[in-house]
């Protein structure tokens, strides 16, 4: 699971008041470098919740020493270094195993082989 | 097209044109493709394109006729009904269509990109190296009707010096460049320079030279008079040097035959021969590791480890139809093995896909393997897939409603 994907996910458990952003408890984190696409990144940024990105990065940092330090707010103009860091964080960091945690109910959604399982139980719908 | 073919590398000794099949071709998908929408920033040679309705072309005032540019010197026609056609001359292509009617068509093009990058050209259909194309009109009053008549007409094309000494060797050299630079593995035969000499047919008379292995597939509308297999059997011996041997599973070269009736000329067929350039790098199917049957000419369903799946070409057409911009989020709530979500990478969309069957006990492991193969073998970003219930999407609002942004 990439952090890009994590940014879009929330808990839909019945009765959850605030199911976003989901916490990340990683077991296995892998890095898979890919060529930076600046245009793609700049087009994606307006759709992202940047605070959720920052939170996710900090939750992964104990398991991934190479994570860059990101600014608390994004400047209007992004230099190449920041573009590379953001692209790396969003596209190249993969949580292979672990779980996502609802901030409201603490419900855990397992991640196995990179696929988060967001399927609810019958009593959660 | 009679467009001069070229490569970016002027030292390359050979170049060829390419042909791609447009499955269920759609007017606006073709128009976009002609103008600029080949993914991965590949440039195309055609400098202009326009689209007209059939009705426009019958009017004297149509701008096509007003232009000083001469009328098309050639056309590519659609299947059976002339609903999509392309006219071309040395520097211009015109697309015309009858609204509301669609079909598939061939689309030949020349690109300035190196041959090694051609397999990455996708979005419409499998790209093949064009050996040659011909118009078959042996009878002034009628079309070819029987297998023997068709075979004889094709034999005339294939037994020429032009085919054997220029067209086939040239396309084969391009095919070899692509195979050596793009395919995951090739046989020793493909690496053997002695099998790629200029005069392949003369060399094949040397019985010590075993030649390449090949198979043939045929793209053709259904014909009650004879099957595709009948046609292949009737012309196979003239397609390749005699030293080449048939191997349906462990072949080197996939030869694709294209045959269709001419829409505007009731006495003609169009026939083309091309070499498949490993268009989809179909993952998980080991028999395709050294050459691929283009999914659109194969049986209706291709399987990935036993899973029936959406064809990548169809997924690409769907994504083109939506007409999004880079960075758009495409939501597939029932993504299956992930075809649509993975194809988004070619168009710089963010593919967000999930399915209830992507749990570890169902398709999850196979989806993971497929995603890894896309990353490793195709060297492009694979989408992250999610196991979810489409009736209860775990997506935060302001990202996507049901559909694409």
TrEMBL record, chain A:
The keyword Coiled coil is annotated on this UniProt entry: no
Highest taxon above the source species: Eukaryota
Alphabetical UniProt keywords: Methyltransferase, Transferase
Pfam families per record: Trm112p
Keyword Ribosomal protein belongs to the record: no
Example of a GO biological process term: tRNA methylation
An example molecular function term from Gene Ontology annotations: protein heterodimerization activity
InterPro entries, per the entry: Trm112 (IPR039127), Trm112-like (IPR005651)
Family annotation (PANTHER family): MULTIFUNCTIONAL METHYLTRANSFERASE SUBUNIT TRM112-LIKE PROTEIN (PTHR12773:SF0), UPF0315 PROTEIN-RELATED (PTHR12773)
Similarity remark: Belongs to the TRM112 family.
Name the UniProt record assigns to this protein: Multifunctional methyltransferase subunit TRM112
Automatic annotation (TrEMBL), chain B:
InterPro entries cross-referenced by the UniProt entry: SAM-dependent_MTases_sf, THUMP_dom
GO MF term set: RNA binding; tRNA (guanine) methyltransferase activity
GO CC annotation terms, alphabetical: cytoplasm
Gene3D superfamilies from the UniProt entry: Vaccinia Virus protein VP39
Assigned keywords, A-Z: tRNA processing
Protein's UniProt name: THUMP domain-containing protein
Gene Ontology biological-process annotations: tRNA methylation
Source species, domain of life: Eukaryota
One Pfam family hit: THUMP
Location within or outside the cell: Cytoplasm
Domain THUMP: 209-262
């Amino acid at each position: 699971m990439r952090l890009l994907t994590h940014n879009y996910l929330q808990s839909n458990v019945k009765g959850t008041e605030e199911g976003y952003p989901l916490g990340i408890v990683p077991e296995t984190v892998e890095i898979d470098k890919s060529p930076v696409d600046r245009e793609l990144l700049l087009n994606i940024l307006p759709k992202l919740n940047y605070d959720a990105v920052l939170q996710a990065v900090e939750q992964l940092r104990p398991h991934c020493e190479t994570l860059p330090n990101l600014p608390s707010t994004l400047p209007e103009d992004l230099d190449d270094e920041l573009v590379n860091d953001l692209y790396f964080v969003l596209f190249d960091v993969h949580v292979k195993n672990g779980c996502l945690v609802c901030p409201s109910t603490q419900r855990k959604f397992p991640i196995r082989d990179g696929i988060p399982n967001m399927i609810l139980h019958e009593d959660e719908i | 097209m009679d467009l001069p073919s070229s490569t970016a590398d002027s030292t390359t000794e050979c170049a060829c044109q390419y042909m791609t099949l447009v499955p269920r071709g759609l007017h606006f998908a073709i128009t976009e493709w002609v103008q600029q929408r080949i993914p991965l920033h590949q440039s195309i040679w055609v400098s202009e394109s326009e689209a007209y309705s059939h009705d426009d072309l019958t009017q004297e005032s149509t701008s096509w006729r007003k232009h000083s540019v001469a009328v098309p010197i050639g056309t590519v026609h659609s299947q059976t009904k002339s609903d999509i056609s392309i006219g071309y001359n040395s520097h211009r292509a015109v697309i015309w269509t009858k609204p509301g009617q669609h079909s598939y068509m061939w689309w030949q093009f020349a690109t300035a990109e190196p041959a090694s990058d051609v397999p990455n050209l996708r979005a419409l259909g499998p790209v093949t190296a064009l050996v040659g194309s011909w118009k078959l009109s042996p009878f002034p009053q009628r079309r070819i009707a029987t297998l023997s008549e068709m075979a004889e007409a094709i034999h005339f094309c294939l037994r020429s010096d032009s085919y054997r000494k220029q067209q086939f060797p040239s396309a084969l050299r391009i095919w070899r460049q692509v195979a050596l630079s793009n395919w995951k593995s090739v046989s020793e035969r493909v690496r053997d320079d002695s099998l790629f000499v200029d005069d392949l047919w003369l060399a094949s008379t040397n019985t010590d030279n075993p030649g390449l292995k090949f198979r043939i597939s045929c793209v053709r509308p259904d014909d009650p008079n004879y099957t595709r297999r009948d046609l292949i059997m009737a012309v196979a011996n003239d397609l390749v040097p005699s030293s080449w041997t048939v191997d349906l599973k462990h072949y080197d070269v996939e030869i694709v035959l294209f045959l269709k009736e001419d829409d505007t000329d009731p006495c003609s067929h169009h026939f083309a021969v091309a070499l498949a350039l490993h268009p989809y790098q179909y993952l998980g199917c080991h028999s395709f590791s050294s050459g691929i049957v283009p999914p659109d000419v194969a049986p209706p369903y291709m399987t990935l480890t036993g899973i029936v799946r959406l064809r990548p070409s169809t997924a690409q057409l769907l994504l083109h139809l939506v007409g999004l911009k880079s960075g758009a989020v495409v939501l597939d709530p029932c993504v299956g093995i992930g075809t649509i979500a993975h194809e988004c990478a070619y168009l710089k969309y963010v593919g967000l896909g999930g399915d209830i069957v992507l749990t570890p006990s169902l398709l999850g492991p196979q989806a993971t393997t497929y995603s890894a193969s896309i990353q490793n073998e195709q060297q492009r970003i694979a989408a992250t897939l999610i196991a979810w219930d489409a009736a209860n999407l775990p997506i935060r609002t302001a990202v996507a409603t049901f559909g694409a942004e």
